[in-house]
Amino acid sequence: MSAQSFMPLLGRAGFIFLALLTVVGIGVPTLNLFTTPGSLLHVPDYVVTLGGKYLCYALLALSVDLVWGYCGILSLGHGAFFALGGYAMGMYMMRQIGARGVYGNAELPDFMVFLNWKTLPWYWHGFEYFPFAILLVVLAPGVLAFVFGWFAFRSRVTGVYLSIITQAMTYALLLAFFRNDMGFGGNNGLTDFKDILGFPVQAAGTRAALFLLSALALGTCFIAARVIVNSKFGKIIIGIRDAESRTRFLGYRVEHFKLFIFVISAIMAGVAGALYVPQVGIINPSEFAPSNSIEAVIWAAFGGRGTLWGAALGAIVINAVKSYLTGALPNAWLFVLGGLAIVVTIYMPKGLAGLFAGWKTFPTMPKQAIDLGEAAE
Amino acid sequence: MTTETLLYLEDVSVSFDGFKALNNLNLDVGSNEMRAVIGPNGAGKTTMMDVITGKTRPDEGRVSFRDHALTSMDEVAIANIGIGRKFQKPTVFESHSVWDNLELAMTANRSTFASLYWKLTADQRDNIQSTLERINLVPSSQNLAGSLSHGQKQWLEIGMLLMQQPELLLVDEPVAGMTDAETEKTAALLRDIAKGSAVVVVEHDMDFIRALDVRVTVLHEGSVLAEGSLDSVQNNQRVIEVYLGR
After folding, report:
1. Which is the CATH superfamily of the domain at B5-244?
2. What interhelical angle do A3-33 and A204-230 show, nearest 10?
3. Closest CA to A253 of B80, B132, B107
4. CA dihedral over B89, B92, B97, B98, signed as positive or negative
5. For residue A234, what are the domain limits?
6. A191 torsion bin: left (phi>0), alpha (psi -120 to 50), beta (else)
C-alpha cells in the first residue's frame, strides 16, 4: 500500500497514534534490554510487563469500540472473549510445564492430579502444539460470538436488552469456569507457567518480545479495523447504528453485518487475552467477571467512542491511573472509576479524542444514539 | 398508462391487542400508477405501509407484488424485489454525507463481503450526481445529512429511494413540515418519479394531493371508504361525515 493511500485510511490522529505505538513498541523493549540498570534511559522490567498488559487492554478496548462505537452494539460481555483467548493460551502453557509441575506428572497439569484425574480430558488434546493453541485463540471467541450473535441479531435483540444478555453470557461462563469438573483449573485457573515456545516466561527477553508482540497486535488490529470502517461495510454499520430500520428497508441484511463485525471484534478481544496471559502469568475465572467487561466499555467511552485510537488510548490512561491509585490510595479507585463513567457520559461524550481533535472534525453521533447506542427506530 | 396490477391487497386484516388497524382492506395499484391515500388519524395508512413492506404481518389476507406473496417475506427481501419506502419522519443516515447516503442506497450487491471490497464505478458516480441534481442537493453533497433542513432531508430520503430504483415507492407524508415552495417542488419531483415507477403517497395536505392530480383512496377504520378523483371523494357524503364528524 502506498503512502498516499495510507494517510486517508488512518486519518491524521490515527497516523500519530500508530507512529507513537511504533516508537513505544520498539523503544521500550530496546531500552529495557540494551541499557544497563540504573542508567537514565533504562526501562525497568516491571514497566515492560505493566506496559504490555496495558497494550492488551488497549486492544480489548479497540475491539469494544469497533462494535459499540461503529455499530451501536453495546457489548457488556467482551471480557468473555478476552478470557477465552487467554484460556486457550493458558492451556498451551500448562501443557508446556510437563513434568516440572509440583506432582511431576508429565501428562496431567497439577490441578488434574490434585483432583485425582487419571487421563487428560479430550478437549485438552492438541494444546501441546502452539499452532493449535493459536487456532483456538481465534476459534474459541470467534465461534462463541458467532453462535451468540446469530441468535441475538436474528431475533433483533438490540439496545439494553442485548447488553444485558451479553452480561449474562459472561456471567454464565464465569460460573462454569469456576467449577472444578469443567477441567479448566476451577477457582485457581491456570498458572505456574514455565515457558512459551521454549522461552522462559519470566525472562526479560521473553517479556520484551511479548511487549513488542502486543504492540504489533494492537497496531495490526488498528489498521484492520480502519480498513473495515473506511469501506462501504463500515458506512453500512454506522448506518445500522444511527438508523437500523432505514438500513433494513434499503435491503441490507442487518443481522449479517452485525454478526460479521461482532465476530471480528471478538477475535481481536481473544488475541488480546492470549497476549495478556503470558505477561501476567495467570488466567482464572475472575477474567469473566461482568465488571471487567464494563470496565472495558468505560475505557472506550473515556478515550472516545467511534475513533478506535481513542478507545485504545483510554484503556492505557485509565489503567495507568488505576495502577497508580491502587498503590497510592487503594480505597479511592472504584470511586474514581465510577466518577469517570459519570463525568464522561455527561461532559465528555466524545472522550479524550474529542478533547484532542476539537469538536468539529469527528463525525457526530446523533442525539438519539447517545444513550446506550440504541438505534433509532 | 398500463392497467396491469402491480400491488394487490386482498381482505387484509391486522389487529393490535384487539384494535383492528386494518379491517378487510382491499387495494390494487397498477404499474406506473401514482395513488394518493388519505384518511383521518388511525385510519390504518401507516399500518398498510407496514404490511406491504413486511414490518407487520397481517392476521389475514393476501398481499402480492407481481408474482411475489409479500406476506411470507421479510423487510429485506421485500426491499430487494423493488419496493422502496419513505418514512413519515425523515430517516436518513445523519452522520454520513449526502453523497454517502445516496451511495449506500444505490442498487448493488447487498452482501456483507461485497461491501468490504466495494468500489464506485464511473457510471455509478454519474448516477449519484444526476440524482443529486434531481433532488436539488448538489451544493450539499459533501455535507453531513444531519446538517440538512427538514425539507432537504425529505428530499434526500426520496433521492435514496430513487437510487434503489424500485418498481413501487411507498411515500409516507412527504411534505409534512415543508414550506409551500418546497411542497410544490416535491409534488413535481414525485410526478416525475411516477413516470418510471408506481408510487403510493400517504398525505394529509389536500393542496398537495390536488397538485399531484391522481386517483385518491380514502381509508377509514382500516378499510377503503371511497376511491376516485379528489373532487369525487371530496363530495362523497360518507367521506364528509368521517372528516367533519357526524
Report:
1. P-loop containing nucleotide triphosphate hydrolases (3.40.50.300)
2. 160
3. B80
4. negative
5. 3-373
6. beta
By the CB < 8 Å criterion, does A261 face chain B? no
Cell of A277: 496471559
Yes or no, beta carbons of A249 and B79 under 8 Å apart: yes
pLDDT band at A330 (very low <50, low <70, confident <90, very high): confident
Cβ contacts below 8 Å, chain A against chain B, sum to 85
Cβ proximity of B172 and B46 under 8 Å: yes
Pairwise CA distance, residues A4 & A15, whole Å? 12
A250 contacts in chain B (CB < 8 Å): 79, 104-105, 160, 164
- Say how far apart CA B105 and CA A268 lie, in whole Å: 30
Check if the beta carbon of residue B141 is closer than 8 Å to that of residue B159: no
Q: Report the CATH number at residue A304.
A: 1.10.3470
Q: For residue A96, what is its C-alpha cell?
A: 508446556
Number of domains in chain A: 1
Helix axes A309-328, A290-303, angle to 10 degrees: 120
**Residues written for chain B:** 246
B155's CB contacts (< 8 A; 6+ apart) are: B135, B136, B137, B186, B189
Interface check A213 vs B, CB under 8 A: no
- With a pLDDT cut of 90, the percent of chain A lying above it is 80
- pLDDT one-digit tens code per residue, B63-110: 999 999 999 999 999 999 999 999 888 899 999 999 999 999 998 889
